Amino acid sequence: QVQLVESGGGLVQPGGSLRLSCAASGSLFSPNTMCWYRQAPGKQRELVALISSAGTTNYADFVKGRATISRDNAKNTVYLQMNNLKSEDTAVYYCRITVVKPEIRDYWGQGTQVTVSS
């Protein structure tokens, strides 16, 4: 049973930075894709960034140039470094890991709150 635990959220002032972490416990098969999503109040959950097992990354337009996704395969952990945070970045951030072996499965974390406010 794979479980994901996010950490690193909190209250930050506009222009500040945060580093989110998501650690997976249990047997996590490779290859897998690790993603960060976010959901603001009253809005749909949206993809922020993803990283493949090979290290290929992709970012939503609203975070390009301000965020960096990375992974540590030895620790089964994915990170999201976010800089120059804006009030509109306020949301609950979720990590998602998708594996394809032995079958296609999605795992989600419980979410971590990020609040950007002065």
Describe this structure in words.
- Strand 4 (32-39) and strand 5 form a beta hairpin.
- The strands form two sheets. Strands 2, 4, 5, 6, 9, 10 and 11 form a seven-stranded mixed β-sheet that branches.
- The model has no long low-confidence stretch (mean pLDDT 96).
- The protein is built from no helices and eleven strands.
- It has strands at 3-7, 10-12, 18-25, 32-39, 46-51, 57-59, 67-72, 77-82, 91-99, 105-108, 112-116.
- By secondary structure, the chain is mainly beta.
- 0% of the residues lie in helices and 53% in strands.
Blueprint (SSEs and pairs):
Layout: E1 3-7, E2 10-12, E3 18-25, E4 32-39, E5 46-51, E6 57-59, E7 67-72, E8 77-82, E9 91-99, E10 105-108, E11 112-116
From the spread of the alpha carbons, the general shape counts as globular
The low-confidence runs, each spanning 5 or more residues with pLDDT under 50, are none
The helix fraction, in percent, is: under 10%
**Structural class computed from helices and strand pairing:** mainly beta
SSE order: EEEEEEEEEEE
Number of helices: 0
Mean pLDDT: 96
What portion of residues belong to β-strands?
over 45%
The count of β-strands is 11
The rounded distance between the terminal residues' Cα atoms is 40 Å
- What can be said about the biggest beta sheet? 7 strands, mixed
Radius of gyration: 14 Å
